[in-house]
């Protein structure tokens, strides 16, 4: 399928479509309409049609809708979920270890092969996922041609860790450390800022509580 350029907001909605479609039984629900998807996910019907048109080769048919199986395949192909992508973690604390052992990434074509930590002196880990000394990072990345790095190290060490990843040909960095990182222009950096997420949740909750009090 030819890749189309889509907006960031559309890209963020695609996993929601995919997750819902995968809950449907192909035998019981072989097709689904944009109207039905919009209703279930609380989105506008026009928006859903535009989103699906950006990744689907065929438009939904009147009274029939989209083939669920075909739509799943097309969204997975667009997002790259059908191609396993290997990644490594630097920072084997509680968060790093939890991500390392999380099996759910596989359904998104994502595979964390190992973690590294400065405090590890010998190979360790469980469930087949190893935790290595940081000194082995460069060799493993080169040997396995790793291009995705995840940072769960403390904020004080995050920039140094990021620089190490860039120096070892990592092209995409998923950063969980609560700090701004500087990367070259060709590096894709995504910050998973939990403080921002909590601030949004808190503000939303505060506004809802105010509205509730007004109705009392």
From TrEMBL:
Cited InterPro entries: CoA-bd, NAD(P)-bd_dom_sf, Rex_DNA-bd_C_dom, Tscrpt_rep_Rex, WH-like_DNA-bd_sf, WH_DNA-bd_sf
Statement: the UniProt record of this protein carries the keyword Signal: no
Superkingdom assignment: Bacteria
Signal peptide: none
Entry GO CC: cytoplasm
Chief subcellular location: cytoplasm
Pfam families reported in the protein's UniProt record: CoA_binding, Put_DNA-bind_N
Function recorded in the entry: Modulates transcription in response to changes in cellular NADH/NAD(+) redox state.
Name used for this protein in its record: Redox-sensing transcriptional repressor Rex
Organism encoding this protein: Elusimicrobium minutum (strain Pei191)
């Amino acid at each position: 399928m030819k890749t189309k350029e889509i907006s960031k907001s559309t890209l963020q909605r695609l996993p929601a479509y995919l997750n819902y479609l995968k809950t449907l039984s192909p035998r019981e629900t072989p097709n689904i309409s944009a109207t039905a998807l919009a209703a279930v996910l609380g989105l506008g019907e026009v928006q859903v049609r535009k989103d699906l048109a950006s990744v689907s080769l065929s438009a939904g048919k009147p009274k029939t809708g989209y083939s669920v199986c075909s739509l799943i395949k097309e969204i997975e192909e667009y997002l790259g979920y059908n191609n396993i992508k290997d990644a490594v973690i630097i920072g084997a604390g509680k968060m790093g270890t939890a991500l390392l052992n999380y099996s759910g990434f596989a359904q998104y074509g994502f595979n964390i092969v190992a973690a590294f930590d400065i405090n590890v002196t010998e190979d360790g880990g469980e469930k087949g996922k190893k935790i290595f000394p940081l000194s082995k990072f460069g060799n493993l990345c080169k040997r396995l041609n790793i291009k995705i790095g995840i940072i769960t190290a403390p904020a004080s060490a995050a920039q140094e860790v990021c620089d190490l990843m860039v120096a070892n040909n990592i092209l995409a960095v998923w950063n969980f450390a609560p700090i701004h990182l500087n990367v070259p222009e060709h590096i894709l950096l995504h910050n998973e800022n939990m403080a921002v997420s909590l601030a949004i949740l808190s503000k939303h909750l505060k506004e809802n509580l105010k509205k509730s009090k007004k109705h009392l």
